[in-house]
Design brief:
Helices cover 43% and strands 16% of the residues. The chain contains 15 helices and twelve strands. The longest helix has 26 residues. The structure holds glutamic acid. Glutamic acid binds next to strand 3 and helix 13.
């Protein structure tokens, strides 16, 4: 190893340069190791200087807070919250807050670094971060969620800020969570600064300083990628079929937007199970049902199927829009689709990806496919800074242009280097980061 900076191992021994490998047999998926593997392959490909690679291989800051909240039954519960700030050479740290029982330091490090690649790939003046709380938000009332969010934001204190680190929604959080977060932060800065700190979080409700188009932005970006892929492959989306794993913000908007292009969603799934409907689900109705019942469980349309049957459903496109590590070698071998578009972060593990490549099933990777969310978050932040409100048409127009440009850059890199779209996405991002490091260098 000839790195000039040693790579510290924060969670057990991490080899200096892991390559993508099948996750080890322990029950915990080594997500950060997997992402670092992609970083190393892409870094070799673009000849990234060793010291820059090493700096990018670990987050700059890993913040962990413990904070007490009095619950509805009068008891006090101590929560563990995280904010991982991976890199800010391009601009303030940016990325979501995840509320999920599976939240771990390792996963957040992976997700924070992916935000750095996403922002660089999309040409945004933002860095990468991710945070969250390890708990199941479904087990708490709205009133309790508000208290938990407020105490978390208070505990993070000046580790976040509109010019420093800007959280947003992620799994288990939404626009309401961001309204509480903004309000809490505003109340810590004194009234004279209230208005100037609106941009401390993005993904807010429109009436509270959010932007039009943020709700559907990630799904919209997924669909822009699908449209570009269809053009490149002379594939007619009208009359095509898709299956979607996860029916939260990303999955539901993707289904609705695809239906507008004449594509029908014939199988869906979430944490409660899977359903199949050869006639196609009505995305709007299913979305309303999920809003009311919290999941697709008991939805009157279609019939229940197993997870195995879901992945083996014959369709044109699969959009995994749930958790990481969902598509392994077995799922990939059973699939009958032409294209996988990663609405979620890290849904394919390296074993799954290898099988997809062998079977010539295309994969549009997470850092490209789901970057519509952070891109429109950036537009929200800019509007907050300028005290402006853009129309939905304006946001849509800008997002489409950015997504198409990034898609083109990635495909172009993949052709030039003969690599997968995933490695090409990382490579484009790394070239942009490297250029800035070369200009600014390391202080002092
Ligand atoms: N949580 C989203 C993501 O993973 C959005 C982040 C943001 O808008 O800052 O990309």
């Amino acid at each position: 190893m000839n790195d000039t900076i040693q790579t510290p191992a924060s969670e057990g021994p991490v080899s200096a340069r892991p390559r993508p490998s099948k996750p080890n047999n322990s029950s915990k998926y080594a997500f950060f190791e997997v992402v670092q593997g992609y970083l190393n392959v892409a870094a070799d490909l673009v000849g990234l200087p060793d010291d820059i690679r090493t700096m990018l291989s670990q987050p700059k800051q890993e913040i962990i807070v413990h904070f007490p909240v009095r619950l509805a039954d009068g008891s006090i519960h101590l929560f563990k919250g995280y904010r991982i700030q991976h890199n800010n050479i391009l601009g303030p740290y940016k990325g979501g807050l995840r509320y999920h029982q599976g939240v771990s330091l390792d996963d957040l490090k992976a997700l924070a670094s992916m935000m750095t690649w996403k922002c660089a790939l999309m040409g945004l003046p933002l860095g990468g971060a991710k945070g969250g709380i390890k708990f199941d938000p479904r087990a708490f009332s709205t009133r309790e969620l508000q208290k938990i969010t407020r105490r978390f934001i208070h505990a993070l204190g000046s580790n976040i800020g509109p010019g420093y680190d800007i959280p947003a929604p992620d799994m288990g959080t939404n626009a309401q969570t961001m309204a509480w977060a903004m309000d809490t932060y505003m109340n810590t800065v004194g009234y004279l600064s209230h208005e100037s700190v609106k941009g401390v979080v993005t993904g807010k409700p429109v009436a509270s300083g959010g932007t039009h188009g943020r709700g559907k932005a990630t799904g919209q970006g997924v669909v822009h990628c699908i449209v570009r892929w269809a053009e490149d492959n002379k594939f007619d989306l009208e009359g095509s079929t898709n299956i979607i794993q996860g029916f939260g913000n990303v999955g539901s908007h993707t289904a609705i937007l695809l239906s507008k292009l004449g594509a029908s969603t014939i199988a869906v799934g979430d944490h409660t199970g899977y359903r199949h409907n050869p006639e196609g689900f009505n995305g709007h109705k299913l979305c309303e049902y999920v809003k009311e019942h919290g999941s697709i469980d008991g939805y009157p349309g279609g019939e229940a199927i197993t997870r195995e049957e879901f992945f083996a459903t014959e369709a044109d496109i699969l959009v995994p829009a749930a958790l990481e590590n969902q598509i392994g070698a077995e799922e990939a071998a059973s699939m009958k689709v032409k294209l996988v578009v990663e609405g979620a972060n890290g849904p394919c593990n390296p074993g799954g990806e290898e099988v997809l490549a062998q079977r010539s099933i295309d994969v549009i990777p997470d850092v490209l496919a789901n970057s519509g969310g952070v891109t429109v978050s950036y537009y929200e932040w800019v509007q907050n800074k300028r005290c402006e409100t853009w129309t939905l048409e304006e946001v849509d127009r800008r997002l489409q242009k950015k997504m198409y440009a990034a898609y083109g850059d990635v495909v172009d890199m993949a052709r030039r280097k003969g690599c997968s779209l995933r490695i090409a996405s990382y490579a484009v991002a790394l070239e942009r980061l490297a250029a800035v490091y070369a200009e600014r260098q390391v202080w002092p």
